[in-house]
Amino acid sequence: MTTTRRVTWPQANARRMARQHLTDPAPAGDASPAAVTGAMLGAHAQVPSAAELSVALRLEGATRATVREALWTDGTLVKTYGPRGTVHLLPSADLPLWTGALSSIPAGADPMPPHVRMTREQTEAVLTAIGEALADRDLTADELTEAVVERAGPWAGDRVMDAFQDKWPRWRQVSHRAAHRGVLCFGPLRGRRVTYTHPRRVLPGFTPRDGAAAQAELVRRYLRAYGPATPQHFARWLAAPRGWAGEVFAAAAARGEAEEVRYEGAPAWVVAGDTEFPAGPAAGVRLLPYFDAFAIASQPRDLLFPGPSFTRALGGGQAGNHPVLLVDGTVAGVWHQRRSGRRIAVTVEPVAEDVLSPRRLRALQEQVERIGEVLEGRAELTVGKVTVGPHA
After folding, report:
1. Of 349, 346, 343, 338, which is closest to residue 367 (Cα–Cα)?
2. For residues 325 and 313, what is the distance between their CA atoms, to the nearest angstrom?
3. Which residues of 199-228 are buried (b: 16+ CB within 10 A; e: fewer)?
4. Tens of pLDDT along 347-380?
5. 20 vs 78, 103, 346, 349, 354, CA distance in Å?
6. pTM for the structure as a whole
7. Contact between 375 and 339 (Cβ < 8 Å)
8. 3 with 260: CB under 8 angstroms?
9. In this predicted model, what pLDDT tens digit does every residue of 37-84 receive, in sequence order?
């Protein structure tokens, strides 16, 4: 008789932290920004400085310059639209996997108002236009708008999309779909202006992988990074239909690639055979920036954000809007940093007075000093109230 493996939250959490290089940073000689970003399944980059911090904190001796070099000089990282249609840093070598998987996930209901939406034919026309326009040059958003309008028609440039107290041209509602289809990613800044380019200019020979094969591989990588997990966890992480997630998990189990365990008393899945977990819980003090992958993807969320942390650090149920203080693997507060020249003022607000023992306070000071190194400045710690609101 086969006995189903039982896994507790402390065991799962400790393994996730170790695999995400949060227990100990990856040795500089054995890893790279691309390697640690791959282990995270992407670094959320809507706030560029937060993405740089997420990656560099996981790599021994790395700074923000290390991450920028990987992104803009050696090209081992790429900035594009990833999970949930949000801006991410991904390993360039993994771009065929991500585009193959994300482009084949069934689309949900169109969130755009009827007067803004595009038909299927219009969408395909825009995606074709984007691919052609970016094939041999980097373009700003305005330049790409001109190119899309020229190829698809004036309707594509109608300024009908509400965005940041402005109106964007109609075509931009499918920017993330263009990235998922493999015809758009971000190029280097032109002054302060964002540019877009074609992934083939970043990764010569680039072609998205077959959708079914890419989905299967993404499930495997997700379970390795964040398992035990359920189809509902996977769907939430991707902002994908739950029914579809259930189907791909069932297919992985049928192929013998996923194995069921009992996680906190309920069924969940890990990669087949991947059932070894640390004997003890996570330990240590860590500071994670806005939208860190660990805070967003780890489930169940109420165990990662226990008690008052759920209210203070998870306002509105949206992980990532606050940088978080991790103590022994769970969220125990929030923090904020403000820069003036080389000086970086770091304010940490624990959710309870007894969170920071003298030993933990010393560990926190070390974390703050490390943040200063990553950001190439001099960081100073204050323990007190964080008065800055959540990042929108």
Report:
1. 346
2. 9
3. bbbbbeebebbeeeebbbbbbbbbbbbbbb
4. 999 999 889 999 999 999 999 999 999 999 999 9
5. 19, 26, 24, 24, 27
6. 0.95
7. yes
8. no
9. 999 999 999 999 999 999 999 999 999 999 999 999 999 999 999 999
